[in-house]
Hints:
Elements: H1 2-15, E1 46-50, E2 56-60, H2 62-77
Antiparallel strand pairs: 1-2
Helix pairs in contact: 1-2
Amino acid sequence: MWLKEVAVEVGLARAHGVPVEGVCLYPILDRHDWDNPDHWHNSGLWDLVPNGDGRLERVLHQEYADELRWAQGLLAEQGCC
């Protein structure tokens, strides 16, 4: 996923004195396509899954969560966060 690449680049930038203060995670929640509301991208930290009564439930996207933890650990080791 892109998050590992971003974390490495942020670490390098900060090591060279660039004052990176944060990274935006977008989307944090799954989202539907702008032109087709029936198509969901499954691209957020949480996917939105219809439950039996028609409402949407948040379901953690485990791979994304694991990469986020990895990125946080990497930057913490470098003294960035």
